[in-house]
Write a structure and sequence with these properties.
With 213 residues, the chain is mostly helical. 57% of the residues lie in helices and 0% in strands. The protein has eight helices and no strands. The chain is globular, with a radius of gyration of 19 Å. It starts with a helix and ends in a 19-residue tail after the last helix.
């Protein structure tokens, strides 16, 4: 019975990641009736092709129609999502889940379009309320105003500043610093592999490149 519940939670996590990716890709023009299609030939996918993780291996990583290679990041992200939700349930840290869901969908949005929609900050509201304290609020305000004043030449995106302030509403300053260092490290790795002409600080969520924070 316990194994069945674990498998169910894992599948749910994989499905959630797939769903958040679609939301990030379509927002704000979300079509709730649209069918999943191949990115190359735009053929409507069969039901077995959209099964999280397994669907990728059923079609051997290629579109059944045009035979183009499907990005391996898709099943990898779904696997990471399933593992992540399972760990949250196992360790009883579900109170952080709304925050992580927000970071994931913003990470996808940033990866697709290079910008994020502030409306998704509302997803983290339950976590903020759960961990709210006056000290955290003061730290968040100080971080936001300080970075905003120092950011005369737009060296840091406004979204990055807002995310750091939001994290300060939830975590201690030491934890915010650790998360920021991790984000910078991930950005350097991303820059080395993608050879972009700039570095996006936002990928605090590893799901931008296939896993979570």
């Amino acid at each position: 019975m316990e194994l069945f519940l674990q498998v169910t939670v894992f599948i749910l996590g994989a499905c959630i990641i797939s769903f958040l990716k679609v939301i990030a890709q379509d927002y704000p023009n979300i079509n709730y009736t649209r069918r999943s299609r191949c990115d190359y030939c735009h053929r409507i996918l069969q039901w077995y092709e959209i099964i999280p993780i397994i669907g990728y291996f059923i079609v051997h990583g290629k579109c059944s129609g045009c035979k183009n290679q499907i990005d391996f990041y898709n099943p990898l992200q779904e696997f990471a999502g399933g593992t992540f939700l399972l760990l949250n349930v196992q360790f009883g840290t579900l109170n952080y889940l709304p925050l992580f869901l927000m970071l994931i969908i913003l990470g996808f949005s940033d990866a697709f379009y290079g910008y994020i929609y502030p409306i998704f900050y509302l997803l983290a509201l339950p976590t903020v309320i759960w961990h709210f304290s006056t000290v955290h609020l003061l730290a968040a305000v100080i971080i936001y105003l300080t970075l905003l004043l120092l950011n005369n030449h737009s060296l840091i995106g406004l979204g990055d500043i807002e995310i750091m302030a939001l994290l300060a509403l939830i975590f201690d300053l030491n934890d915010v610093l650790r998360i920021t260092i991790l984000a910078c490290f991930l950005c350097i790795i991303q820059f080395l592999f993608n050879k972009k002409d700039h570095i996006d600080l936002f990928p605090i969520s590893l799901f931008q490149q296939a896993s979570s924070i």
